[in-house]
C-alpha cells in the first residue's frame, strides 16, 4: 500500500504478509511510518492505494462492514486509552456487550478471566487512574482480547512505562505469543523480539528496508540504515 500526508510519502509500496500465529516485530527510527502502518492496517488511517486483507477478507473502506471486520484487529497503543470514568471491568466488558452482543453476566465472567490472565483481576473495580501504568496497559490488552481478535497490533506498548513495569507488560505479550496469537508489534524492546518474534521488519523513511529473523537482524543487520539505527539504540 501507499499513503501520503500531503508531500510526505509516508508509506511507500509497503507489501507485508503476516501468517496465522506469526509474531512480527516492526522496528525503525522515529517518523519512519510505523504508527501510520498500524493505523492503516486498522483503517484508522486511509490509504491512497493498496488493499488490506484479514483472514482472506478485504477490509472495507467504511461502514458497518468495516466496524465488524475492525473488531478482528485488537489494538494496544502507547497511551492506554482506557475510558477514565469506567471501572477496569467495565472497560473490558463494554465492547463485548455493545459489539459482540454478550449479556452482562457473560461479559463479566469472560472479562474477569481475561483480567486474571493478565494479572490484574484484583483491580477490576478500580478506575484506570488508580492503577499503575503497567497495570493499565495490561487492562488495555485484556480489553482488546475481549473482542476475540484474529490479530493484535501493538504500537510501542511499553515506551511510556517505567522500567520496572515494562517487564510485566512484555511478559503478558510473550505469553500471548506462546499461545499462538497473531501479533504485529512495534517495539524497540530487543529482549521481547528475541524471545517472541518470528520475524523483524525494519522500516525507514516509509519503506521496509530489511526483513530478517530477530537473531539475524540484531547480530548482523545488512543495511547501513539498520546498522546505524541499532548502534544508536544499543549505546543508548
Ligand atoms: N496526521 C498526520 N498528518 C501529517 N503528517 C503526519 C500525520 N501523522 C504522522 N505524520 C508524519 O508521518 C511520518 C510518520 O509518522 P509515524 O507516526 O507513522 O512514525 P513512527 O515511525 O511511528 O515514529 P515514532 O517512532 O516517533 O512513533 C512522520 O514524519 C509524521 O510527522
Ligand atoms: Mg509511532
TrEMBL record:
Annotated keywords: Amino-acid transport, ATP-binding, Cell membrane, Membrane, Nucleotide-binding, Transport
Classification via Gene3D superfamilies: P-loop containing nucleotide triphosphate hydrolases
EC code(s) of this entry: 7.4.2.1
Pfam families the UniProt entry points to: ABC_tran (PF00005)
Any one GO MF annotation of this record: ATP binding
SUPFAM superfamilies membership: P-loop containing nucleoside triphosphate hydrolases (SSF52540)
Membrane topology: Peripheral membrane protein
Any one annotated GO CC term: plasma membrane
Catalytic function, reaction form: a polar amino acid(out) + ATP + H2O = a polar amino acid(in) + ADP + phosphate + H(+)
Membrane-crossing residue ranges in chain numbering: none
Location(s), subcellular: Cell membrane
Domain of life: Bacteria
Main location: membrane
PANTHER family membership: AMINO ACID IMPORT ATP-BINDING PROTEIN, GLUTAMATE_ASPARTATE IMPORT ATP-BINDING PROTEIN GLTL
Annotated protein name in UniProt: ABC-type polar-amino-acid transporter
Organism per entry: Paraoerskovia marina
Lineage of source species: Bacteria, Bacillati, Actinomycetota, Actinomycetes, Micrococcales
Amino acid at each position: 500500500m501507499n499513503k501520503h500526508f500531503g508531500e510526505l510519502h509516508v508509506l511507500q509500496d509497503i507489501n507485508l504478509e503476516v501468517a496465522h500465529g506469526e509474531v512480527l516485530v516492526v522496528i525503525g527510527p522515529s517518523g519512519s511510518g510505523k504508527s501510520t502502518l498500524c493505523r492503516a492496517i486498522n483503517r484508522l488511517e486511509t490509504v491512497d492505494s493498496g488493499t488490506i486483507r484479514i483472514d482472506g477478507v478485504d477490509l472495507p473502506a467504511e461502514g458497518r462492514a468495516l466496524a465488524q471486520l475492525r473488531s478482528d484487529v485488537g489494538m494496544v497503543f502507547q497511551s492506554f486509552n482506557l475510558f477514565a470514568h469506567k471501572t477496569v471491568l467495565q472497560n473490558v466488558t463494554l465492547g463485548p456487550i455493545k459489539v459482540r452482543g454478550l449479556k452482562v453476566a457473560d461479559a463479566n465472567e469472560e472479562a474477569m478471566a481475561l483480567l486474571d490472565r493478565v494479572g490484574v483481576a484484583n483491580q477490576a473495580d478500580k478506575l484506570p487512574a488508580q492503577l499503575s501504568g503497567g497495570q493499565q496497559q495490561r487492562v488495555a490488552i485484556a480489553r482488546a482480547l475481549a473482542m476475540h481478535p484474529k490479530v493484535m497490533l501493538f504500537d510501542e506498548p511499553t515506551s511510556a512505562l517505567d522500567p520496572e513495569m515494562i517487564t510485566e507488560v512484555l511478559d503478558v505479550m510473550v505469553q500471548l505469543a506462546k499461545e499462538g496469537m497473531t501479533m504485529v508489534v512495534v517495539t524497540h524492546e530487543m529482549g521481547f523480539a528475541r524471545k517472541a518474534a518470528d520475524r523483524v521488519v525494519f522500516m525507514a523513511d516509509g519503506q521496509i528496508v530489511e526483513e530478517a529473523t530477530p537473531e539475524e537482524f540484531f547480530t548482523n543487520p545488512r543495511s547501513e540504515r539498520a546498522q546505524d539505527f541499532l548502534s544508536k539504540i544499543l549505546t543508548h
